[in-house]
Specification:
- Belongs to the metallo-dependent hydrolases superfamily. Adenosine and AMP deaminases family.
- By secondary structure, the protein is α/β, with parallel strands linked by helices.
- It has one domain: Metal-dependent hydrolases (TIM Barrel, Alpha-Beta Barrel), CATH 3.20.20.140.
- The chain contains 14 helices and 10 strands.
- The strands form 3 sheets. It has a 4-stranded parallel β-sheet. It has a 4-stranded parallel β-sheet with strand order 5-6-9-10. A two-stranded antiparallel ribbon has the order 7-8.
- β2, α5 and β3 form a beta-alpha-beta unit.
- α1 packs across α2, α6 runs parallel beside α7 and α13 runs antiparallel to α14.
- The radius of gyration is 19 Å and the shape is globular.
- It starts with 22 loop residues before the first strand and ends with a helix.
- The relative contact order is 0.14.
Amino acid sequence: MDQTLFPTPHGVDADDPILRLPKVSLHDHLDGGLRPATIVELASEAGHTLPADDPADLAAWFSASANSGDLTRYLETFENTIAVMQTAPALTRVAREWVLDQVADGVFYAEARWAPEQHLRADLDMDAAVIAVQAGLDEGEAIAAEAGRVIRTGQILTGMRHANNSLAVAELAIRHRDTGVVGFDIAGGEAGNPPAAHLQAFDFLHRECFPVTIHAGEAAGVESILEAVQVCGAQRIGHGVRIVEDMDVVDGNGTLGRLAAWILDHQVPLELCPSSNLQTGAAGSIADHPITGLKDLGFAVTVNPDNRLMSATSVTREMRLLVDEAGWDQSDLEWATVNALGCAFIPLDARERFIDEILIPGFERITL
């Protein structure tokens, strides 16, 4: 593969067989996945001062800040990515490179999650921002196709849960549903900003038969997940790692609370992001991360990078960590990938075709 177009993901051995497995990425923030060199170039154009001007030094700063345990420092990392994503050309470039990085990671379906309301500091409105991102996604897919690689992408538009724009973002998503937008989300500070505060947006989207995922169960606990699923009607849960607080299970034996049993019985997908959860304190180590116990109990777990830049990760790296530190095998990785594709925000016929033509054959060709 052309390393100039499709660079091997950070922290991944180019010969790792996991890299060649077909993958799905559902929880993957656009503003958390920029290339450091791109940030440096865009910051120069925008007149934005960075904490470091060398790409390698900047990558190290992002990693150190995200792993500091200091929430203020962690949030500062996003200020430096969002600051350089305020023009149409910048958004298009970032989205294009985001697609190429997915291809390099072995991903054949990916959803780009981002908040249009955070990209209006220059002369863009939210519609123009969505169009610019879609142009980049389309360009990335076309470049991949020319290289003989298959990838399909979609946008998930995110409302900020501490703001009052969620209905406007929901209406924006509906305006662009036939030109690349596939879902809606709310994100931001979870504690003190419950999903039900955005019920007007969710009710509107449900009437429009439009897919919804909600960040819940990361910084806040079971009540946040309950509201997301039972009050706001989310089809998927972003993170959801703290569902374990509603169960008493040791070595596969024990009891599930009402909500945990509902999530399991109805196979509500959990968009789990192991490395990111360690950074935010939602888990202590990969070996002890709840994703493995949830998998063993039959929950619909999926494996995601969350923020590729801040966590210096990729789907391949997350899978490698689970294999090396949590005892996962190839069948576990396939199970999680089937779960992810099964709940992707694309039509059923596309999901079935991907399973038959890409996912199953791809796993059959590789032996870990």
